[in-house]
Design goal:
By secondary structure, the chain is of the alpha/beta class. The chain has 2 domains: 118 residues, Rossmann fold (3-Layer(aba) Sandwich); 199 residues, Dihydrodipicolinate Reductase, domain 2 (2-Layer Sandwich). Helix 4 packs parallel to helix 5, helix 5 runs antiparallel to helix 10 and helix 8 crosses helix 10.
Length: 344
């Protein structure tokens, strides 16, 4: 018997990542869709050969459903993921795990109480270039890491979100809360923790709503750009910029500067990873292209999640990992608002 999966929320992330990747996974038998908008759930059930339920409760009380993907919008994660875990389901929660530390703690505590698996979809850990870079850093092939810079920007979620307009929930303070920092920034914070085997502990930042407007033509209520300075527990220094206004091309690059050379990740169009030694010698890796909004490839997240359930393994991104990244993003937002350095 294969695994039955329930998906809460049928927006773009479900349509382009969760549903097709569950469908392609050999261990998954059936996908059951729920969305407050029944038409949206029905459309995906038709596309991916699943079925629809009218309420979340139907998913949570069905003993044959073992797995839940929580693809609801950010402000609901703590409600649905907590309930699902306490109903005895394994949960894959979209990022950010929540909008507040208190709500994130609720999910983490529910996981501990239930003993079920909780993984959070910080998908940058799964790309081959990032995994290879981590290996090079861990083996100290270029010596110790000194500094870093990372960027994540594209032309904005109104191109991507389900209604493809500037009325998107990403632009609403009460629903998205963290703007581009919670949408894109949190991915890179998680990535830095993963690559460097370290944690960001001090931050400063500037933010603004520089260009985006809502459906009424007014500046959006959350930041569309944020630029940060970061210091880690091990003393590494770095910068990060996150943007919804990179018009023309997405940028998902990270550069790590070490004692004996430089690692450039997703910096070149040709090579996903470039190693530049102190003497100028270069090593290029052609691995796989990273997902962009225009180029959806299998993220590996669903397969890894199903494997950790099947093989009784620790998830690659735990609730605590996600909570740690959320604390950094909340610190960055506070630093930008107060104009001061914040200790996480």
């Amino acid at each position: 018997m294969g695994i039955k999966v329930g998906i809460i929320g049928c927006g773009t992330i479900t349509k382009v990542r969760h549903a097709p990747e569950y469908k392609a996974n050999p261990y998954v038998d059936e996908i059951i869709f729920f969305d407050r908008n029944l038409e949206r759930a029905t459309a995906l059930a038709n596309e991916f050969g699943g079925r629809v339920v009218q309420t979340v409760e139907e998913l949570l009380t069905d003993p044959t459903i073992e797995v839940i993907s929580d693809c609801s919008s950010n402000e609901f994660h703590h409600v649905f993921s907590t309930k699902a875990l306490l109903s005895g389901k394994h949960v894959l929660c979209e990022k950010p795990i929540s909008l507040t530390v208190e709500h994130a703690n609720e999910i983490v505590e529910a996981q501990m109480k239930s003993g079920k698996k909780l993984m959070v979809d910080h998908n940058q850990r799964f790309t081959r270039a990032h995994q290879k870079a981590k290996e090079i850093i861990k083996n100290e092939e270029l010596g110790k890491v000194l500094t870093f810079r990372t960027t994540f920007g594209h032309s904005g979620p109104e191109q991507w979100s389900v209604n493809k307009s500037n009325s998107t929930w990403f632009f609403k303070k009460d629903r998205s809360s963290l703007g581009v920092a919670g949408d894109l920034g949190i991915h890179k914070v998680d990535l830095l923790h993963y690559l460097l085997d370290d944690e960001i502990e001090k931050v400063s930042a500037f933010q603004g709503a520089l260009d985006k407007v809502n459906e009424h033509g007014e500046p959006i209520e959350v930041c569309d750009n944020i630029v940060c300075s970061l210091k880690t527990k091990k003393g590494r220094l770095g910068t990060a910029s996150f943007s919804w206004t990179y018009y023309g091309e997405e940028d998902n690059s990270t550069i790590i500067y070490c004692e004996k050379g430089i690692l450039k990740i997703y910096h070149s169009d040709q090579y996903q990873l470039e190693v530049i030694h102190k003497n100028g010698e270069k090593v290029h890796y052609k691995l796989e292209s990273i997902q962009t909004n225009d180029n959806q490839t299998n993220s590996g997240v669903i397969d890894a999640f199903i494997d950790c359930i099947r093989l009784e393994q620790e998830p690659i991104v735990t609730g605590n990992d996600a909570l740690t990244s959320l604390k950094v993003i909340l610190g960055i937002m506070e630093a930008a608002e107060k104009g001061s350095v914040i200790q996480i």
